[in-house]
Every structure is written in structure tokens, then in C-alpha cells.
Specification:
about 375 residues; Rossmann fold; elongated; FlgT_N
């Protein structure tokens, strides 16, 4: 018999989607059906359900729940692997409605951020063309389109160097520095069906020509060209700035000062200066990949049609038929002190991957329960 399940709410800090929780209070709800009048058993099952949901969402892995005593979870009732620990826990509310018991718990959970989720999906990034701050710098060599060529080579470096992340989409627009912000990151991530946003701006492309010295005529007079870039990595769901790096280097500019170059040409990118720029992009890909290594991968719901749900994760991200996923919603709000908080609402019904495509998949309820209140832009995460 199919039943409609209620959403369970999990209250946590803003950084939950940015990284596994390393410390903090989580409030979660669980529910269970009273069978044969045994309310105590239903109460225990509801509590265990809430505990598991909070721990798994925080990045821990629970083996078993043994007992609950007088509304306080004792220290020997949980066996948690090295990926998480519970400092304290208590039951804060109980509700009996018909034959359904709902229990709310509050837990102080510590999750070891050094332990990554095994076999997690690839995290997806969207980037844009890189704006050139001083366009007159590009006049030397005519490399006005270098900001358009750069993200293509960045994607290649991610494919070669990154183990946990990939550039899924390049948005053909160059956003100025004042538009490379959290609000634009959230909009861009939603548009591109990506988890993270990487902004790059080119601040310096100047050329330095050695001064001629007749007494040192034997010295190389080849000019040097600089490249200084500012990079920002955002969480596409919360708008949180995860990383900001400035990259700066220079190398010889081996071309004639009058020569106008194609910004996409192998001749440019295989030159000393081009090789230096590729090395910078490779380092950036490695740094971003390390930053995202232990952050859980998640995707978005793109379409709901009856019991079938389409998501924006697929073969390229490592999704396979039979994988089980957690549905959840993200709601942000300001508290009384003006601090931005996030409410994560977990759906109690697991979904299972039924079909997989290149960058998408079709999922359905894993246990034939009714999937109510699911909508586009809800999130999914691997269990």
C-alpha cells in the first residue's frame, strides 16, 4: 500500500552544503506508525529515524541505534564510524496524531571533514568568459579574445588534473568584477544545472620590454608578458564564497610586436607564455578540486512528471542505475540578529536511479511510496 510521507526538517548553519558539518546543532524530525497500540516502539523508531537522517546528512555513517532512555539518547546507544561523532543529543518534542508518532531531536554532531564520502559523484562547475580589466593591454598581440579562449583550456585542465570535479558548462558571457558576486553565482548555477560557480577575471596582461643597453648588447631583448588573474569559487546553492585566489606570473613573449594573434590558436597556447598560462590553469584546477574533494556532490530536480523525477546528474558525474539518492529542499532566512541561516528539509522517501543519460537521470521512489511535494530546483544527494 502506498502512503504519503511528510518532509522532515533539518536546521543547520549556512555552511552545510559547503562542507560536511564539523560542529553544530542539528534539529531533525522522524515519524513512525503505531502498530498494535505499541506507542513506545513507534516512539523509538521515530527517534532512530531522526537520528539517522541528521547524522547521514551531516556526513556521518551510523551502524546501529541500540536504545533510548527517558528522552535522552545515551552515549552507548549509537555506534558511529570514524566519519562522525555525537557530542550530545536529546529529544525536544513529541507529537501523537492518530496512529503516527513524530519525534524531534536536537544533536550536537561533529563530523570529521578529513574523511570523504567514498564513491561520491563528480561535482559540477559552471564558469564564464573571463573579462579583461584593462582592454588596452590586449592590444599588444591583438589577444582581445583571450578571455573567451581561457575557459576552454581550463576545462581541459580539469579533465586532465581533477579527480572530484569537472567544468560542466561555460556560459558565453563576461561578467565584470561588480557582477561576479554571490547573487549572480546562485542564478548562474541554477541556469547551468551546476553545483559550483568559478569566476575568473584577468587583471593584467601588460608587456614589459627590456631597455636597450649598448653595453649589454648580448642580453636577450625579448619582452615579457604578465598575466594576473583573480578567481572566486562559489557554492551555487547558498552563494557562499568558498575560495578566492590571485594567480600571477610572467614569461617571454616570443612574437613580433606587430604580430596579431588568434587567441584560440595552438601557436599562442604552445608558446612559452601560453604554456605558462596553461600551467597556471592546471594549478587552479588542482586547488579547486582539493577544495571540493570532501564536499558532498548534489544535483537539482529539473522536472517532475507523476512519479518520475528528472535530475541534472548523469553518466559524466558517475551516476549508475540502482543508485539511491536523498531528496531535500533548501530554504534561507535571516534570524533576529540579521544572520543568514539555512533550513534543510529532507524528504523521508529514498529515490532510486532507473535510467541514466549523459548529464541527467530518471529517478523514482525506491520503496513505491508516494513522492509528494517535489518540485523543480529541489536537490538530490547520494545516500
Amino acid at each position: 500500500m502506498r502512503t504519503t510521507q511528510l518532509w522532515r526538517a533539518v536546521w543547520i548553519g549556512l555552511t552545510m552544503l559547503a562542507s560536511p558539518v564539523n560542529a553544530g546543532w542539528i534539529e531533525a524530525q522522524g515519524s513512525a506508525e503505531v502498530k498494535q497500540g505499541n506507542q513506545q516502539l513507534a516512539r523509538q523508531q521515530a527517534t532512530e529515524q531522526a537520528v539517522r537522517q541528521a547524522l547521514l546528512f551531516a556526513g556521518a555513517s551510523v551502524n546501529s541505534v541500540q536504545r533510548v532512555t527517558n528522552g535522552l539518547l545515551t552515549d552507548d546507544m549509537l555506534e558511529v564510524r570514524a566519519s562522525g561523532d555525537i557530542n550530545s543529543m536529546e529529544i525536544i518534542a513529541e507529537d501523537y496524531s492518530g496512529d503516527i508518532v513524530t519525534v524531534s531531536i536536537r544533536a550536537d554532531i561533529f563530523a570529521n571533514t578529513d574523511v570523504c564520502r567514498p564513491g561520491d559523484y563528480q561535482k559540477t562547475l559552471v564558469t564564464t568568459w573571463a573579462p579583461i580589466k584593462h582592454k588596452d593591454h590586449a592590444t599588444y598581440g591583438g589577444i582581445f579574445d583571450i578571455g573567451k579562449a581561457l575557459p576552454d583550456y581550463l576545462r581541459r585542465q580539469f579533465a586532465a588534473e581533477a579527480r572530484h570535479s569537472m567544468v560542466k558548462h561555460i556560459e558565453p558571457i563576461a561578467l565584470t568584477d561588480d557582477l561576479q558576486n554571490a547573487e549572480q553565482a546562485v542564478l548562474l548555477a541554477q541556469k547551468a544545472d551546476s553545483q559550483f560557480v568559478l569566476f575568473i577575471s584577468i587583471d593584467d596582461l601588460s608587456v614589459e620590454t627590456p631597455r636597450h643597453n649598448s653595453l649589454a648588447f648580448w642580453k636577450d631583448a625579448t619582452p615579457s608578458r604578465y598575466v594576473n588573474m583573480n578567481t572566486q569559487l562559489y557554492n551555487g546553492a547558498t552563494g557562499e564564497l568558498l575560495m578566492e585566489k590571485r594567480l600571477a606570473s610572467s614569461d617571454l613573449w616570443e612574437f613580433d610586436w606587430q604580430e596579431q594573434l588568434d587567441s584560440f590558436s595552438p601557436r599562442l597556447w604552445q608558446s612559452r607564455w601560453g604554456q605558462m598560462l596553461q600551467h597556471q590553469l592546471a594549478n587552479l584546477a588542482i586547488q579547486v578540486d582539493e577544495q571540493l574533494a570532501c564536499i558532498p556532490a548534489y544535483g537539482r530536480v529539473t522536472q517532475v512528471s507523476g512519479d518520475a523525477i528528472n535530475i541534472d546528474l548523469g553518466k559524466q558525474q558517475g551516476v549508475r542505475v540502482g543508485d539511491r539518492l536523498q531528496l531535500f529542499q533548501l530554504q534561507q532566512f535571516y534570524d533576529a540578529s540579521g544572520e543568514l541561516n539555512s533550513r534543510y528539509v529532507l524528504h523521508p522517501v529514498e529515490v532510486e536511479v532507473k535510467q541514466v543519460f549523459t548529464n541527467s537521470a530518471l529517478v523514482m521512489s525506491a520503496d513505491d511510496a508516494l513522492l509528494a511535494n517535489i518540485q523543480a530546483n529541489d536537490f538530490v544527494m547520494r545516500r
